[in-house]
Specification:
Distance between the termini: 78 Å
Number of helices: 1
Helix content: 10-25%
Strand content: 25-35%
Strand order of the largest sheet: 4-3-8-9-12-11-6-5
CATH topology: Sortase, Chain: A
CATH superfamily: Sortase
Shape: globular
Order of helices and strands: HEEEEEEEEEEEE
């Protein structure tokens, strides 16, 4: 009887261990995403505190590095990768993400939302602020929800203690050739977002915002 009880006890322990391992595997990926979101919110809070204290675009944009990615890809936990100089916010799709300076080594879509080398900063009169990021389901797919945008949606860019407001006026897809044509009004300050087209590995989606007073 004792031997049988010991055997049952071992079976219960083994079953419990398998259950714990299974739960850990199931929860690991969502928890990593939550962790990254929490860290991002903290970094944005620090950036905003600093801001409070401190109180055209070229038509051919090199986009070879933009892709839709999946799987276990995470942002390297390096504080220098998050020395934000500004923030992009689009409330309609619950997007809020900081960006580093254009000359930072972490101005790269494998770390952050990337400012295109052809881009102007938001402060440039009638300039075009061009941002690129991955889509997909990895932790660095910061533009995964852009496909949900609708004409008229508003985006805010905070830069150098000033907020710039933009309204979405145009959306279109282009073939993925390594170059992106940007069609915009050169008499207006513009925000352009670029990412891979959802469910189409051969195209990229372009979102054109124009400055608004809102």
């Amino acid at each position: 009887m004792t031997r049988r009880n010991n055997y049952k006890s071992r079976l219960i322990l083994v079953g419990f261990f398998i259950l714990i391992v299974g739960l850990a595997v199931f929860l690991f990926t969502p928890l990593k995403r939550v962790k990254e979101e929490v860290f991002n919110d903290m970094r944005l809070a620090i950036y905003q505190q600093q801001i409070n204290q401190d109180n055209d675009a070229l038509k051919n944009i090199d986009s070879n590095d933009i892709s839709s990615i999946s799987g276990d890809v995470t942002v390297e936990e390096n504080p220098e990768a998050y020395m934000y100089v500004g923030e992009l916010s689009i409330p309609s799709i619950q997007l809020k993400r900081g960006f580093v300076s254009k000359d930072s080594e972490y101005n790269n879509i494998n770390y952050n939302i990337q400012i295109a080398k052809e881009s102007d900063y938001p402060s440039v009169r009638n300039g075009n602020f061009i941002l690129m990021a991955h889509s997909g389901d990895a932790a660095i797919s910061f533009f995964d929800s852009l496909y949900k945008l609708q004409l008229g949606d508003v985006a805010t860019v905070s830069y150098q203690a000033k907020a710039y407001y933009y309204r979405l006026v145009k959306m279109y897809d282009v073939e993925k050739t390594g170059k992106v044509a940007i069609y915009r009004d050169y008499d207006k300050r513009t925000l352009t977002l670029i990412t891979c087209t959802r469910n189409n590995a051969n195209k990229q989606s372009i979102y054109i915002f124009e400055e608004t007073n809102e």
